[in-house]
Write the structure tokens for this entry.
Amino acid sequence: MQNYTHIPETISKLFVEMDYIAIATIILLGIPIIIKIASYFRKKIFQDYEYSARLQILDEQLTGGSPSLKDIPALSYRAKIENRGSKPIKIDCLYLDYGDKVDSNKRMKRHIDGELYLSPGKRHEFGIEISWADVEQMKKRFNINQCFFFFRVAYHAPDGSIKENIRSLGDTRTKIIQKGDCLT
């Protein structure tokens, strides 16, 4: 009769060796998964950058007037907006805001252009004038002394959200210019 006492020992050694093999297999299978996840996030960052909106203002013409010359507008602003990105952009609206420098609630919002689409490389020309009567009305309404001008664009981002970009127009504000000899 044969002695079968060594069989349980052999089986336990086989399971221990299988545990090491299983752990090694899991590690070897996990490495490509980690590489794929890292690659996904790297591609997502690149894709977000590649598809991001890139609007450029070109050929700006900014002219300010004087309160003593009521026939000349307080501000005349003309420019072109260009899509420098790789995808078309839906622009909801172009605005010229004027009023307080810090508090956006104390600004008049003047509509320049409505909804439009800009293909890659396409330009759109726009212009607006703000009269001195409009500036005086804003000053009375918000009880402020100075008037600052801002260009604002509302557009759709590639993720579908609506974004706004506001830029000051050269820190331009209305100034009262005195007539007479120069003091300097």
User: Anything to note?
Assistant: Residues 172-184 have pLDDT under 50 and may be disordered. The chain has two helices and eight strands.
